[in-house]
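Ligand: 2-acetamido-2-deoxy-beta-D-glucopyranose. Inputs:
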Amino acid sequence: MAMQSLVFLLVAINYFTVGSTAVPLPGNGVLQPSLNYQRYRQHEYKKYLPYYQWWYYWIRDNNNDRHYAIAYGTTLCKHTDTKVCMYDGAAVGFSVVDNKRNFRMQKYEFYDRNAFSVEGIFNYKIHANTNRTIHEILPIDDNTFRISGNMSKDTIDNVWFCDGCPKDLEIQWDLTLSRIYGWYAQDIFEEPDRVLEGVIMWDTYSHTAEVEGFVKIKGEEFTITKDAGFRAYGDSNWGEIMPSSPPKQKPNAKYAWGWYYVNIPSNNQSQEFSIIAGTGLTYADALLKTMDARFSDIRLDATTHIELRSVTVWNITLDSCNDGKLHRFDVERSNWVNVTDSFGNATIPLRQLVTMESDNYLITMDFKSLETNYNRLLFAFMDYVFSDFEGLGVSTDVVIIEKVTGKVLRNETVKSGGVEYGYRFDINVPPVPSKYL
Ligand SMILES: *[C@@H]1O[C@H](CO)[C@@H](O)[C@H](O)[C@H]1NC(C)=O
Ligand SMILES: *[C@@H]1O[C@H](CO)[C@@H](O)[C@H](O)[C@H]1NC(C)=O
Ligand SMILES: *[C@@H]1O[C@H](CO)[C@@H](O)[C@H](O)[C@H]1NC(C)=O
Ligand SMILES: *[C@@H]1O[C@H](CO)[C@@H](O)[C@H](O)[C@H]1NC(C)=O
Ligand SMILES: *[C@@H]1O[C@H](CO)[C@@H](O)[C@H](O)[C@H]1NC(C)=O
Ligand SMILES: *[C@@H]1O[C@H](CO)[C@@H](O)[C@H](O)[C@H]1NC(C)=O
Ligand SMILES: *[C@@H]1O[C@H](CO)[C@@H](O)[C@H](O)[C@H]1NC(C)=O
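Predicted complex:
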């Protein structure tokens, strides 16, 4: 749908209807999206505006309640119309949440834009001026991705910070993901997004995958094997604006994004269970004002898939569901706590309850996190740094009810949930390294 027709459609609907309305979105999301959906899109967006994109991975060791999160990204603003360009280049972040050992850390490196390239569809590389590859995402086929990285003594000049670790901590990883389920909800929004405001887009192309390889921290090697003891998640985000409150309004906690993930691995892949959900409320522009978006893919097993999509602009909700109607898609946040870390203060909800309902299913995920489950992942853009509080290995009650029969299909408490609260908190971060590659 072209941008003009979308806007005219919205104006027409708004004119002829009173109060809130739901309008069906055509079709459904893209199941098992091919590599092209994961592509680097900078050249497709406006040359005169800043642009960001990142690819994020979470490797989960179920037996040890140990989690690794790896983000490869780029944030570009030089040579654009913006006057506020502090963060231009590429960043790679590596974090650990070990709930058993009660240990958390994260290390970020920041590189000049010339040290970064994307070849082919999304073969992201950070290379030194010798062309030695330091960090890489290597897509092999639609379902297979190899991710590697090497934070060594040779890259110490590129360390932005190490939070909970010494700056010279050496970390290496080399992991191959084999996708089980993936979903891309926003296919039909790509064109309007490009033409309009470049609101953050989200592609959950591998929400559960088998994974094998290793992670090495200060010489200690952790072997990751391709069995149900380990799983990996992978997604990508891009856009021209990050979620934010309306201008001149006091910051408000509701203009946040949320990410909700529960996966129950199975040795028999046709019985793998996985739910990914994401929500976000942001100010877009003077025309669209605020946008509220909610997306979820629910795989009860390899053959039973429920998906929900909803986007609200003005008072109009555009939605779709592959199981009749979208009856409910809500997030309730509670148990707010003030946290103070090396970046400052923030107030986050430790409990988030997601309720989703279609014609035949009622799904709830009740995330009960502890402060120790979180790292504050940082996403720099233009002249600010967005905080993404990411809880990994969170105790979560999952209940799936088949409405017609009243049958409880799942009622489990998993300790491997993933939950986020992302918001543009005031933050103090060290400056990016000035003497970098
Ligand atoms: C690095 O690789 C690029 C692209 O393949 C090439 O143009 C450049 O000459 C190489 N630089 C060095 C120092 O080898
Ligand atoms: C990481 O980089 C160091 C220093 O350049 C090198 O000696 C080492 O072999 C690399 N390790 C891996 C796993 O790539
Ligand atoms: C895997 O699960 C499917 C669906 O429940 C079942 O039909 C199949 O027999 C199972 N395969 C094995 C090897 O157990
Ligand atoms: C949305 O609807 C509410 C009440 O129905 C109304 O007060 C508000 O002005 C409407 N907002 C927009 C942007 O149309
Ligand atoms: C968090 O801090 C704010 C501002 O200092 C305060 O108003 C609020 O009561 C605190 N909340 C909690 C849960 O401690
Ligand atoms: C964080 O909050 C504490 C207690 O409310 C306050 O003393 C401190 O100044 C705050 N720090 C920052 C960086 O805002
Ligand atoms: C799920 O299990 C819990 C604990 O066993 C129980 O209290 C609850 O009633 C169950 N919920 C449903 C919908 O069966």
